[in-house]
Design goal:
Length: 273
């Protein structure tokens, strides 16, 4: 049976020179290796059949403890590669049946991989999420807008009986304004991040069960940012966050390899997730 070659990502041959890699494999036992093609090299390690032979892999990914452990290690390795190299990151569980197959893929995709590496040069991925809850924001004592203040002033000029009715309606105005405020803020942070980005991709908003947060996810997107623009983007977003009501949260994480921006091409026998 051919050895199973687990590939983490692709880097340029020029960048690895003859240096040894100090990043350890999925099992944290051996340093990962580089398999070089003409201009592009694969960062890889050999893996065990009981873990990654296809039938075993399909069974193992049903074990959440196994999956979490191995997937976290995969992403840790990619993050370490990203610190030193320009890298095209591959999905967890990208397997090749021997180095001969890997060599074919490197040869067939040499120009494509080179173009991707050039496109990712000095760039990093950042994730931006906004969490908020309309009812919580509405209940915050300091929350107000021009529309809310105008409505309050209008009510003050009414008779006592009419004020009672209009204050009930004011509650609906505050709720609508809270929702508008959240949506407007999400658009504003997106505009700032986009201003500093080479590319971006809006993602699905996750449920509270998935995030573990007690507020709803109102915005979820990833941005490809050149390193020279990173500090300016972070400074603007942090300023915006400091001015937010306490019931709203901005979650900015990175830098990561460009998971969402490396073009999808045929890379071999991939049955990972």
């Amino acid at each position: 049976m051919k050895e199973l070659v687990y590939v983490y990502g692709f880097v340029s041959v020029e960048s690895i020179a003859n240096e040894d890699c100090s990043i350890f494999d999925l099992y944290e036992e051996q340093p990962i290796q580089f398999f070089s093609g003409e201009n592009v090299a694969a960062a890889f390690s050999y893996v065990r059949t009981e873990d990654f032979a296809q039938e075993n892999f399909e069974e193992n990914v049903q074990d959440m403890k196994w999956l979490e452990q191995k997937a976290k290690r995969h992403h840790s390795i990619l993050n370490q590669l990203h610190e030193t190299y320009h890298v095209i990151p591959l999905n967890f569980g990208t397997i090749y049946q021997g180095t001969a197959k890997l060599n074919d893929v490197l040869h067939e995709n040499n120009e494509t991989f080179q173009s991707q590496l050039e496109a990712m040069k000095d760039k990093e991925e950042w994730s931006l999420k906004v969490y908020a809850e309309t009812q919580q924001l509405k209940a915050e004592a300091t929350f107000s807008t021009e529309a809310i203040e105008a409505k309050k002033q209008e009510i003050e000029k009414l008779s006592k009986g009419r004020q009672y009715i209009e204050r009930k309606r004011l509650d609906r105005t505050i709720e609508a304004e809270a929702e508008r405020y959240i949506n407007q803020f999400c658009q504003q942070v997106h505009d700032v991040a986009k201003k500093f980005s080479e590319a971006h991709e809006e993602k699905e908003q996750w449920s509270k069960q998935m995030t573990g947060m007690n507020t709803d996810m109102k915005w979820n997107a990833v941005y490809l940012v050149h390193k020279k623009n990173r500090d300016d983007m972070l400074a603007e977003l942090q300023t915006m966050q400091s001015e937010l009501p306490t019931t709203m949260t901005v979650q900015l994480t990175g830098p990561w390899p460009g998971y969402h921006f490396a073009s999808k091409v045929k890379r071999g026998e991939v049955y990972g997730t």
